[in-house]
Amino acid sequence: MICPYCHADETKVIDSRETELGSTRRRRECLKCSKRFTTYERVEEIELTVVKKNKDRERFDRNKLVRGLMRACEKRPIKVEKIERIADEIETELRKKDTIEILSTDIGELVMDKLKELDKVAYIRFASVYREFTDLRSFEKELNKIKGAKK
Asked: How far, in Å, CA of 5 to CA of 9, rounded?
């Protein structure tokens, strides 16, 4: 770390603590001029890119993920905190991948897996949009999958 006063590049950390915002606050002292200063350190998150079905690319938007989950869970006995936790889990899984380009279908499948465990009605709501059900037969097919998994 370079001293903001004398521009020397040797400093020592005197105190270090985590902040409420998820960064690390460090109190430093310059070994040349002995002046003290504070730095804040945070992890730089890698921006994820979503590759849509039509091959368009857009920045991953966690809020869009939460809105989709909220829409599927509308009027269901599911707390917002649970939806937020699911969004966190999905984002964490996406960030663990070896690539920054994520297929929208991968996100959709993760959402489907989480909703299937959480609430069958929310799952069917999401599936009807995600799988683009065009008729009653495709809807029944998905319902039968759930029924088969329950037994």
From this structure: 11
